[in-house]
Structure formats: C-alpha cells, structure tokens
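Recall that a protein's primary structure is simply its ordered list of amino acids. Everything else, from secondary elements to tertiary packing, is in principle encoded there. The following example makes that idea concrete.
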Amino acid sequence: MNRSQIVAIITGAISILLAIAYLVIVQIIDYRDMKPAPISQLNPPVLNVYNHQTLVGTIFTPISIVENNFPHLHLDIIAKV
C-alpha cells in the first residue's frame, strides 16, 4: 500500500467514527423527548409599579388594568432567576 491509500483508509475510518458518534448523540437527545422545565421550578415575574413622586407598591395585576387606572406610572417587570 502506498501513502495515499493509507491516508484514504484513515480518513474513511475517522468519518465513520464521527457518523456513529453523531447518531449516538442524536439518540440520547431524542430519548429525553426535549421535555421543558417543570413549571414549579420557574419563578413568576414580579410587576413593580412606581409613581414618579411616591412608591405605590407591588401589584400583581395585569399591565392593562394598571395602565388604565394609573396612566402616569412607570412599570418595571422583574423576572427572578
């Protein structure tokens, strides 16, 4: 065998190993079924409502209700991580 045949055999073996590794990784990822994180582990966002002059407080109501009742408030949505 000459040098070019040896290089071809080695290259073919490497490509077959990469293909097998890829198939194994895909099977592992597919086995998990891509399940999302449980809802119990996610923290709900906190809606902080501030007036420009005074602190109004923390309100857990939808933003549209807050904006309709308090049109000049600054809204901050903070996600606890």
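The radius of gyration is 29 Å. The longest helix spans residues 3-31.
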